[in-house]
C-alpha cells in the first residue's frame, strides 16, 4: 500500500501533468483500507465479487463513519477517506485509473523482486498476467520497461521463464501501436 503511494509520485511523462498527484497518493493510501478488517480477499478465496464488495463497503462504513465519524474533529477526515475509497473503487476518474494501474504494476515489481531473490530458482511468471489489466498507455510503457528488465534477468540465468510468450506479446503490442 505504501509503495503504491510512492509510485504515484513517480508518474511517467506525459501522464504526470494530467494527474492530480496528491489525489492519486491519497487514493493509493486508502485503496486497501477495508482489508484491515476483511483481509485480502483474492479470487482463490472463492468469494463472489458482490459479497467481497459488500464486506469492503461495510468495513469502510465502520472505519469512516462509526469510528472516525464519531470521533471529535475526525468526521470530515472520515468523509474524505470514504470519498477517496469510493472514487478508487468506481475506477472512472483518470486518477483512479492510474492508481489501479499502479496497483497492477506494483504486483509485477514485487514478482520481479522475489524472482531475483530466488536467483533463478523462483519463477513467478503467472503474475505477469496482471499487466493485462493496465489501462493507460503510459503505464503500459512503464510495465514494458519492467518486463524488459525481467527478460534480461532470465537470459542471464539461462532459463526461459513461464509466461514468456505472454510477455513477448505484451512487448510486441508496443511495436504494433507505433
What features would you describe in this structure?
There is one protein chain. With 178 residues, this protein is mainly alpha-helical. The protein has 8 helices and no strands. Helix 2 packs across helix 6 and helix 5 packs across helix 6 (94-117).
Short description:
It contains eight helices and no strands. The chain has 178 residues and is an all-alpha fold. The longest helix has 24 residues.
Structural class: mainly alpha
Helix content range of the residues, please?
Answer: 55-70%
Shape: globular
Average pLDDT works out at 93
- Straight-line distance between termini: 34 Å
Major pleated sheet: none
Strand portion: under 5%
Order of helices and strands: HHHHHHHH
- Total strand count, please? 0
* Spatial extent as radius of gyration: 18 Å
Poorly predicted regions:
none
What's the number of helices? 8
Task: Please describe the structure with a list of short key phrases separated by commas or semicolons.
8 helices; 178 residues; globular; mainly alpha
Topology diagram in text:
Layout: H1 2-8, H2 21-30, H3 35-38, H4 49-67, H5 75-90, H6 94-117, H7 137-157, H8 164-177
